């Protein structure tokens, strides 16, 4: 029983990794819907591994490191692969010129900076009730959400049909991951409403965006999250 208590959270983390591996295989093969399902499963497991660890008082350094390694695949490699897929049709077209190499590989800058972000997070004791920079799951929802919405309904065509804008998004995403900007976390310091106004605004806005726009609302929620974090900087 003690073994289960100590390792249940790690089992959730490994489930996140397993789901992320399956999602990457399907995304590379063009099956974005299965990849989307795998990302959704990984998000749930990623949430519950920490919840279970705290509930069972089984927090450990092993769990912390394991969580980052799992996130590196699901929320590091997968968004980089997503950008790779979006850039793939453009070949070596770089701002209307022949770059001499396939620009799709530049999509993996997102993976590189996701790795850097996860390493920084593990060494930073300040990020208990807030994030410094955009967290990797949110970044994944932003990048993959754009790809998914475009595949399903043609949304964000202005972005997906322009390699320059996709590369700009890659740079912006990479910077946001390691930026010093404080971002909201859903962890509560207290149960007082006045201490959680920003989180209430975020949750309300997210629900409205998803209700109004459906799948297209997924990346919009992340954009709203970023702007809400900027708006409430003094309260984070």
Automatic annotation (TrEMBL):
PROSITE patterns according to UniProt: CDP_ALCOHOL_P_TRANSF, PROKAR_LIPOPROTEIN
Signal sequence range: none
Keywords (A to Z) from UniProt: Membrane, Transferase, Transmembrane, Transmembrane helix
Molecular-function GO term, any one: phosphotransferase activity, for other substituted phosphate groups
Top-level taxon in the UniProt lineage: Bacteria
Membrane-spanning segments: 7-28, 34-52, 64-83, 103-121, 133-150, 162-179, 200-227
GO biological process, one term: phospholipid biosynthetic process
InterPro entries: CDP-OH_P_trans (IPR000462), CDP-OH_PTrfase_TM_dom (IPR043130), CDP_ALCOHOL_P_TRANSF_CS (IPR048254)
GO cellular component term, pick one: membrane
Family in the record: Belongs to the CDP-alcohol phosphatidyltransferase class-I family.
Annotated protein name in UniProt: CDP-diacylglycerol---serine O-phosphatidyltransferase
Species assigned in the record: Cruoricaptor ignavus
